[in-house]
Write a structure and sequence with these properties.
With 115 residues, the protein is mainly β. The protein contains no helices and eleven strands.
Length: 115
Amino acid sequence: QVQLVESGGDLVQPGGSLRLSCATSGIRFNTYTMAWYRQAPEKQRELVAHITNGGITNYAESAKGRFTISRDNAKNTVYLQMNSLKPEDTAAYYCNAANLLATYWGQGTQVTVSS
C-alpha cells in the first residue's frame, strides 16, 4: 500500500518559517521525482518545487530564494523548508511522487500565514 504522509503545516506569522515533511512508504522512493504542490481556496493546484531522483531541483518563481526542497533517500522522505513566509503562501500543501509508471498524492497539510 502506497502512502505519502505530509506533516509540518501550521499557523505562522508573516516572515516566519516552516519545514514540511512527506514520509513515503510502499514505493521505491529513489526512483521517483518528488514534488510539493499547493492549493489555495478557490484556486488551482500549483507546483511549488520538485526534486528529481538525481537531486535536480526546480522552483516556482514565487518560491525561488525562499523555499528549499530536499530529499533523504535513506528515510524515504522529502522536505520543504519555507522561509520568509507571506500571507499569499497560505494554502494546503500536497506531496507528490511521480515517475513514468505512476503518480501518487498525499492528503495535504495546511499552511496558514497570518498575523
